[in-house]
Request: fold
Amino acid sequence: VLPEPEDTTGVAPTQPELPRELVLSDVYPNPFNDRARFTYSIREAGWLNISLVDQMGRQVILLQDGHKNAGDYSGWLNSNSIPSGEYFLRLALNDKKVTKTVIILK
Reply:
């Protein structure tokens, strides 16, 4: 005779899910006039590029371009020299990319 299992629900316990390799939070506030904050997480070290691009894909601002260790980080967008419009905050780590829409209102 086999012993009765302790968990009789038939549902296996789940492991907490780790964030994907590259996570970018929403930009806050958005839309914004002067400054906005964003946070991001990377789960592996690598070459990180953070840039703001326009709707044509042209780089407007380069915020980061270099090696970054795994971890949680935050950054600021300063729109002093950027005209009103819709832009995209783009993070690229090694071969992975993530993008968020940013609205600048002056």
Remarks:
- The chain has a mean pLDDT of 86.
- The radius of gyration is 20 Å.
